[in-house]
Amino acid sequence: MIDPHLLLSGVIFGLSMGSVFFLMTLGLSLCFGLMRVISMDQLLYYAVGAYLTYTVSMAIGNVWLGILVGVLVSALVGFVIERLVFQRTYSREITFSMIISFGLLIGGIGIIKAVWGLVPRPVPVPIEAQWNILGTEVPVYRIVVVLIAVLVYAGIWAFLNKTIIGKAIRAGIEDVGHTEGLGINVSRLFTLTFILAGALSGLAGGLHAPLIMVFPDMGLEILAFAFMVVIIGGLGSIKGTFISAFLVGQVVSIGSLVYAPLAQMAPFAIMLLILLIKPTGLYGSAMLKR
Asked: Which terms in the Gene Ontology molecular function aspect does this entry carry (predicted)?
């Protein structure tokens, strides 16, 4: 029997982990949904956001400013890479973009190692207070991370459903050809999506940095979980990504309390089970040809 206080701590830990998964994989989902690009370089922006949060927080002592700098620089890097690299790959097969993006991830990790070295770096927690919930001390910062993820989801939903640009992106996700026929510059939508995806991945890294030790291969370490989240939720589905991120976060957290190896095995088992029942994931649709 799991101690109730330990269980509550595990749930909060799972929620904060799921929040990071969501912010990181939202970019992957957006890029695949609109452009049919498997953008593994999003995991590079995640690491860049974390390292810039570390650098700025060490320089001036403000973690939140570090997170903001990480978001802005990650968005800029995403813009440059989309313009220089991915614009030349949209007409290629999905596997081509996947290989290119993985190469960018590995190359970026090499640059990170050259700039910051191999030693893991600690980032101070910006909010050290704790709340007493049902007799259990819960870190306030983890709750803040969850709230930020929920606000981002609400903001992305409003952007995609209530704004002209967002509706154009949704139309592009459904059918690029018809969207171009309406006179919409799809190329600009692609660029905007990459900027947004890079910013979200940088935000994930910046928010996660105070909860872990920042190290060069942090993007590679979380790669399997990122793909599990996107596949379980359904490729291209924002709602599915949101739900599956928190599902995977809870499975990893609670599973580690029940039996440590479950933290690694259970998400894969759930992914296989869902794919057997619904091959497109929880909210995915049949893949369209671009």
From this structure: transmembrane transporter activity
Residue 128 lies in a domain: yes
Q: 91: which DSSP letter? A: T
The 3-state DSSP class for residue 182 equals coil
What share of the chain in percent tops pLDDT 90? 42
Evaluate whether residue 190 is within a structural domain: yes
Q: Is 260 buried (19+), middle (13-18) or exposed (0-12) by CB count in 10 A?
A: exposed
Cα separation values, 139 from 9, 93, 178, 262, Å: 9, 45, 49, 24
Contact 226, 26 (CB under 8 A): no
pTM, full prediction: 0.90
Number of domains comprising the chain: 1
Its domain, for residue 199, covers: 17-216
Q: Which residue, chain included where needed, has tokens 């869902």?
A: 274
Mean pLDDT of 88-101: 81
Burial degree of 290 (CB within 10 A; 0-12, 13-18, 19+): middle
140 part of a folded domain = yes
Residue 232 placed within a domain? no
Q: Give alpha helix (H) positions in the chain.
A: 4-35, 42-60, 63-84, 94-116, 140-162, 164-174, 176-181, 186-208, 218-221, 223-233, 238-258, 262-277
